[in-house]
Structures are given as C-alpha cells and as structure tokens.
Amino acid sequence: MRYRDFEAIMSIDRLGRYLSAMGGDTRKAMKLYRLNLQASQEMFTIISCFEVALRNAINEHYKTSWGNNWLRDTALVGGALNIPRCGKTPHMINNAVAELRTNYSHAKLVAKMDFGFWRYMFARHQYTALGRTLLTIFPARPRSSPGHHYDNTFVFGELEKINGIRNRIAHHEPICFSNGLSVRDTTYARQHYRLILDLFNWMAIDEGALLYGLDHMNMILNKIDHL
User: Fold this and answer.
1) What distance in Å separates the CA atoms of residue 53 and residue 46, rounded to the nearest whole number?
2) Per-residue model confidence as pLDDT tens for the chain (227 residues)
C-alpha cells in the first residue's frame, strides 16, 4: 500500500510520530507502525496470560481461607470487604453478582472482575481486610531488606504499571516511543515485558513453558531497534 493511502486510513495525526521517528522515510514509517502493532499484540497476549494466572492464584488462596464463594461472601453486609475503607470494592462485586442473577457461579464472578480489581487486592485496606496473607502467592519473591520492601504496597505499584501498559494497548496507543516524544525507543516495552516475566517467576511459574510459541517480544523489539 502507498503511504498516502495508508495515511488516509490511519490519519495524519496518528502516523505523524512514526514518520518523524523515521526521519520522513514513509516506507520505514509504515514498517514501524506495523511492528508496533505486532509488539502490542504480543504484549497483550502475555499480559492476558499473566492476568489469568494472577486472578487464579488469588482465587485459590482466598478459597482456602474464606470459602468457595469468598468473593461474593466477603462483599455481603458484614463481610470482610464490606467496610468503608475498601471503597468501591464491595460495590463492584455486588454489582457483578446482580448482573449474573440466576446465572451466578463463583467461577463466572471471578471471570467478570477486571485486572484493576485484582490489583486492588494488594491495596492496603483490601489486603488487611482479608488477613494480610496474599503475598504467599509469590513464594519466590525477593526477600525484603531495610532499603527495599517487597511488600503488598510494592506489588500494588508493580501491578499498576502492568495495568497502565494494558490500557495503553487497549486504547491503540503506541509502545515503541520514548515517553511523550516522537523518538523510536523500545525501553518502555522492554521494562514492562521484563516486569511481567519477573512476576511470573515470583509466582514460581515457568513462563518459558507457559508462553511457548506465544512470546516473540524480544525478536519484534529487536526489529524495531534495528529499523
């Protein structure tokens, strides 16, 4: 496809950063755009696998201590999460239960909660309300030191980073530039990719086996770097 036709479909504003990053070379600008899409697809797949692994680990952990319907039960009046300090968390659960109506099952309720919800299981009040035990789903996490605490607050912040790039991709924003600049740079994507792999390792999950045939991030990012 000719660049002007590609630009007419994708818009001048959207392609402007790619063209600028490639020094006005239209062929390279189109290639960078496509490589960014490939990198985004790969990253989203990896994030999706991590999200499922995370929510399943949280679910299994709390089923042991709070029962097989822990998510619904802790949001009920008098439940552990149904306190003002937990903010919107119980309302999100109760609304999801209401939407399911007679189709309710615990598994369906778990599936309805998004990544941001599971991230908030590590927020201070939610983490405390459910017993301050959730970090055990990361058996291989580094030991804390006086200068660096690998606690629930740290995990909450790391998950916020993953949620950020997840939302960025979902809104079709590029992940191949320096922050706020029209400069080709894979640092942002590589940092978040490495973070997800680290968290898989903290969960004692063999990410190489799990993502076999799905993970080509380094190959694609190397192509971007050498474009």
Assistant:
1) 11
2) 888 888 889 898 889 999 999 999 999 999 999 999 999 999 999 999 999 999 999 999 999 999 999 999 999 999 999 999 999 999 999 999 999 999 999 999 999 999 999 999 999 999 999 999 999 999 999 999 988 999 999 999 999 999 999 999 999 999 999 987 889 999 999 999 999 999 999 999 999 999 999 999 999 999 999 99
Per the CB < 8 A criterion, the answer to whether 54 and 118 are in contact is yes
Q: Which of 43, 186, 40, 28 is nearest to 15 (CA)?
A: 28
Q: Is 52 left (phi over 0), alpha (psi -120 to 50) or beta?
A: alpha
Q: Which domain holds residue 158?
A: 37-65+114-225
DSSP run (H or E) holding 5 = helix 3-10
- Distance from C-alpha of 200 to C-alpha of 57, rounded to nearest angstrom: 11
Using CA atoms, how far apart are residues 53 and 59, in angstroms rounded to an integer? 10
Tally of structural domains, the chain = 1
Q: What angle do CA 117, 123, 125 make, to 5 degrees?
A: 110
Mind giving me the DSSP string for 138-178? -TTPPPPBTTB--SHHHHHHHHHHHHHHHHHHHTT--SSB-
- Asked whether residue 148 is domain-assigned, the answer is yes
Report yes or no on 158 lying in a domain: yes
Tell me the residue type at 208: G
CA atoms within 13 A on the CB side of 173: 15
